[in-house]
Structures are given as structure tokens and as C-alpha cells.
UniProtKB/TrEMBL annotation:
One of its GO terms (biological process) is antibiotic biosynthetic process. Pfam families: TauD. Coiled coil: none annotated. It comes from Pusillimonas noertemannii. This is TfdA family taurine catabolism dioxygenase TauD.
């Protein structure tokens, strides 16, 4: 049976700006074409441990939004599997797929508890929007992706290749689309190395700050934007954040200068290379994709959905914070990407669904 674990044998060197990066997260799409080779398929015993942990939490009376390792206790070997998943995200390829998660054996509340519980073995859940949602719902609510204040996960458009403002992002598939909607992932390390080889002058541009829109997720008195480089180096480790729609939507905001010609050229080449290096991953119900946002990019293809509301494409999303993830610059660890969307005066909550009126 294939094994997703590479963290104990993979090679890494001290990362230096404007030099090639040697890192186990520097994979190419052809390296990852066999999805089962980097996946873990839950066994019947693993599933039983998950279901037992859900029922134990329910007996304790712990609210869904309070799910954590204290309330969701895996009694068996699956806990050690999740320890290895975290290590693979931190020090391996930066991507792991769990398959055969028992979504068909649980109601929606139990699924939410199980997903948050398993995620708590990787990190602490973070708020994903101004409503304080720690359980996100990726589904088409009729949003316009071109709108500066619209988050892409509420649309069915193909999104810019990006990374989320957290350490790890998890996507659990509940329902697939009628057509399209494949997940797409790429290695930020490989994007950097390829760009460095082709245009080292533009790689230098991308280690400088870019303005990013908060897409309307701001508290009173906060600026509508923040700044971060695309590529960073800290304590000998490479990390990156995506050049997604947030940098486009920042253009035109008060206080944000227009891109220079060099910045335009650098972003265009970055996106061209990221597109070349994307791997398509068809989701099935019960698949969970975990990514380390500092070494992996993700997006999805556009899709055609089912007309029936109960059949629409639906993923559950987690944003997870792990301060022991790879070292990143302090301004990232303590800034927007370290805290997520932090609404003032809003209690964290885990909605079991969202609708167009939400």
C-alpha cells in the first residue's frame, strides 16, 4: 500500500533568496499524478474511531463550535495517522489527501463535529469571514467573482490560483458538481524555482511587498488592504503566498499605488508558470484535501451545478492555525495570515449550512 509520508527521508537545504530551493514540497504535477500514492484511505477501524469520538462528544454536550482535541478523542491508531499528516504538511510535500471519510454514515451535525475534530489534530480553527464561521461552506450562492468584495468560494467561477490566509486549509467533499469543479493544486516551491530559472530579475520583484485587498472583511477603522511579498525567506526556510484575486482587487483602493511595469510582468509570468504546474484532482464525497498554504497553491475549475439544492456541489472548509508550522516572517505569523478574518464582537460559530440569503 502507498504511503503519504515523505517527511523523514526527503531532502531539504538552507533556503537563500534568489537561489534554487531544495525542499520536499517542491514537487511537479507528474510526480503527484497517482493520487493514491500520497493519500491515506481510512480503514473500517479508523471510521469506527471517528464515529465513536463524535458520539462521545455528543454525550459530553460539547457544542459543535467548541470541538477540539479535548472533546474529540480518537481512541486508536488514527490519532497517530493524523500526527503524521501534520508532520507531512509541515516538513514533507505540504499536501495530503484523506479518503473514505464516513460522510455517508453521519448527519450534518456529526459530520461537522468529525471534521472539526480531525482538523484539531493539525491546528486551531480560525474564523473565515466576518460572521465568525470556523466551518466554511464552499458552494455557489450566485456571487459575482468580478465584484471586489465577493469571495470566490460563493461562486462557481474558476478562481485565481491562490493560498488562503492560514497555515493549513482543509476541504471536505460532501457533494460533487454535475460537471467540472475539479480541485487544482501546485507547488509554490516549484513555481518559484521555475520562475527563478526563467527570469531571476522578476523573482526579485516578487520578494517585495504587494498590496492585497481584504475583500470587505474589515472592522471599523481598519484599512481595506494589507501588504505581503509573494515569496519570503526566514530562518533558512522558503515560504510563499499566492498571487490570487486579492492583489487585483486591491488596485484602485484608497492608498494603493498602481502596479509598476515590472510588477505587472512578474505577476503575469508567475500566473503563467502556476498554470503550467497545476495538478487536477477530482474530488469524491468523503475526500479531504489538506494543504500547507506556505508551500502549496490551490484553485478549482469552473463548474456546472445540479438544479436541485440538495445535490449542489458542496465542500466544507477549515482554516487551521499551527504556530509550529514552518518558520515564516513575524509580520505574517502575527498579521492577517496568522489571525484570519477576526470580526470584532462576533462569537466564533460553526454553521451547518449557508444559503443565498446568508
Amino acid at each position: 500500500m502507498a504511503d503519504f509520508r515523505t517527511f523523514s527521508t526527503a531532502k531539504r537545504s538552507f533556503a537563500v533568496p534568489l537561489q534554487p530551493v531544495v525542499d520536499p514540497a517542491g514537487w511537479l504535477p507528474q510526480d503527484m499524478a497517482d493520487i493514491d500514492a500520497w493519500s491515506y484511505r481510512l480503514t473500517d477501524d479508523d471510521q469506527a474511531q471517528v464515529l465513536e469520538a463524535v458520539e462521545a462528544q455528543r454525550r459530553m454536550g460539547t457544542a459543535v463550535a467548541q470541538t477540539g482535541v479535548e472533546s474529540f478523542r480518537l481512541q486508536g491508531g488514527f490519532a497517530s495517522v493524523m500526527t503524521d499528516v501534520r508532520e507531512e504538511l509541515r516538513n514533507g510535500r505540504g499536501i495530503v489527501m484523506l479518503r473514505n471519510f464516513p460522510v455517508r454514515q453521519m448527519d450534518r451535525e456529526a459530520t461537522a463535529i468529525a471534521y472539526l475534530g480531525v482538523g484539531s489534530y493539525l491546528g486551531r480553527p480560525m474564523s473565515q469571514n466576518m460572521q465568525g464561521h470556523i466551518l466554511g461552506h464552499v458552494k455557489d450562492l450566485g456571487g459575482d467573482y468580478a465584484d471586489p468584495n465577493t469571495r470566490g468560494y460563493f461562486t462557481r467561477a474558476e478562481m485565481r490560483c491562490h493560498s488562503d490566509p492560514c497555515d493549513y486549509v482543509g476541504l471536505l467533499c460532501l457533494q460533487t458538481a454535475k460537471a467540472g469543479g475539479a480541485s487544482r493544486v501546485a507547488s509554490s516551491v516549484s513555481v518559484y524555482n521555475t520562475l527563478l530559472q526563467r527570469r531571476p530579475d522578476l523573482a526579485e520583484v516578487l520578494i517585495q511587498d504587494f498590496y492585497r485587498s481584504r475583500k470587505g472583511d474589515v472592522n471599523p477603522g481598519e484599512p481595506a488592504w494589507f501588504k505581503q511579498p509573494i515569496f519570503t525567506f526566514h530562518e533558512g526556510r522558503f515560504s510563499a503566498v499566492g498571487a490570487g484575486s486579492s492583489i487585483d482587487k486591491a488596485q484602485g483602493l484608497p492608498g494603493v499605488p498602481p502596479w509598476s511595469a515590472e510588477q505587472q510582468e512578474a505577476i503575469a509570468l508567475y500566473r503563467e508558470i502556476a498554470e503550467e504546474l497545476l495538478l487536477d484532482i477530482p474530488f469524491q464525497p468523503g475526500d479531504i484535501q489538506f494543504l500547507n498554504n506556505y508551500v502549496a497553491l490551490h484553485t478549482r475549475r469552473d463548474y456546472q451545478d445540479w438544479p436541485e439544492p440538495e445535490r449542489k456541489r458542496h465542500l466544507l472548509r477549515l482554516w487551521l492555525y499551527d504556530p509550529d508550522n514552518r518558520p515564516i516572517p513575524p509580520e505574517q505569523r502575527h498579521g492577517f495570515r496568522g489571525r484570519g478574518v477576526l470580526p470584532a464582537g462576533v462569537q466564533l460559530n460553526a454553521p451547518l449550512d449557508v444559503r443565498e440569503t446568508a
